[in-house]
Write a structure and sequence with these properties.
The chain is mainly α. The protein contains six helices and no strands.
Length: 149
């Protein structure tokens, strides 16, 4: 019977032990990665805000917008910093203007909904029209069904 070579087995076991790494990630690597992801997220948000402002501005021509976008693609860091320095105050004004427009639309919607008075008020108005003889019973029933729907 032929026995295996003990020296070869030890060399094989030693070689496997040196190649096996269970965890080569340290806490500092995780923190560093999280920091990089945080700054990447901030950078993406800045780019999105610049693009939103660029296309929100109605005074800027299409050619100028295209030039800004091309510059953002090829020289993003420099372009963002130049854009913020050159047009930063305009960014704030355009953002405030849009927020005011949205707020006024919301206010108008709320006033419209609040002024309608709901189904009871609509039925009451329809009943007064019916009593005055302005509408027929069928029209009153239609208005009532519409108000309750």
């Amino acid at each position: 019977m032929c026995l295996p070579d003990i020296g070869a087995m030890r060399a094989f076991i030693d070689e496997r032990d040196h190649d096996m790494v269970l965890a080569d990630v340290h806490l500092s690597d995780i923190i560093w990665s999280m920091l990089w992801l945080f700054f990447l997220f901030i950078w993406i948000m800045i780019l999105v805000q610049v693009l939103i402002d660029l296309f929100r501005d109605h005074e800027l021509s299409g050619v100028a917008k295209a030039i800004w976008v091309i510059a953002l693609v090829f020289l993003p860091f420099i372009t963002v910093f130049v854009y913020i320095i050159a047009r930063g105050s305009g960014m704030a004004k355009r953002s405030m203007k849009q927020q005011e427009q949205l707020q006024s639309q919301m206010d108008a919607y709320v006033r419209n909904v609040a002024a309608s008075g709901g189904a009871a008020e609509q039925i009451e108005k329809a009943k007064s029209l019916l009593d005055a003889g302005t509408i027929t019973q069928e029209e009153f029933d239609q208005l009532k069904a519409k108000a309750l729907a």
